[in-house]
Amino acid sequence: MKNSKLFLIALSFALFFASVQQSNAFAISEPYLTKEFTLTGKGNLEVETSGASVAVNGVPGNQVIVEMYVKRNGREIDSKDPEVEELLENFQLDISKSGNTISLKVKRKNNNDWRRGDNLNLSFKVQVPTEISSSFQSSGGSISMDSIEGEQIISTSGGSIKVANASGSIVSKSSGGSFNLNDFDGEVDVQSSGGSVKIDGLEGKLKINTSGGSVTLEDISGSIDANTSGGSIKARLLGIDEDLSFRTSGGSITAMVPADLGLNLDLRGGRVNSKLSNFDGEIKKDLIAGKINGGGYLLSMQSSGGSINLEFID
Asked: Residue 147 in contact with residue 127, Cβ under 8 Å?
């Protein structure tokens, strides 16, 4: 009986370690194709994709490494396969360097040619020097960028956009998909016809125009001009360098500002809520207009039908 128990315990440990090794093996992801380039100055990255996701990561140095990952019917292919190589002929693929510009372009030659078993999914990881500018044109697939400095221009008809630990300027135009930004220093212009906008940690200038989706802003210092045709706006402000404007055709607006900050207020909505002190001006159910703490930059919050909420941070 004792030997049987020992056998079962040993077998359990063996199965456990085997499952761990197997899961680790599946977790290891090897690129199907790798290309490396060396830049001699400030670089540019030009990306054009149709359905492929791209992740860009900045590191010190002047090396650019482009890794391509291939999945077929959901299964990752990490080694050269004659059949996959033949299927890749259905794509226009260009990974090249001209001067200090790196081009990554991938597009299916015939979008209607989806024979059974030919379903390939391509994704890319791109290591770049920290200081680099980029231009993205995507008709689908996610875009992520981390630890980069420069001018980034993003245009996509679908897929999420994520940027973190970066500085410089971003212009993003999207007809669908969410926009997420974390820890950024510089200027940001977000234009979207759908999808939520979430920004956590920004020092600089922010402009948002969206026709759908909520806007959430956390720990913002600088100036803000946020406009949405649908969805709510929520903003937590650490400091203000210029006038602030929040507008929505539907949904509520909530702003949290430092309690000792001097502001001019123009708040208009279905109902305006705030607990004011040291205020001079007019207060109505749907309007607050005047000055707090002697006045300062203008805080304008307007909603066609939703509520307006002004809260204070001690």
From this structure: no
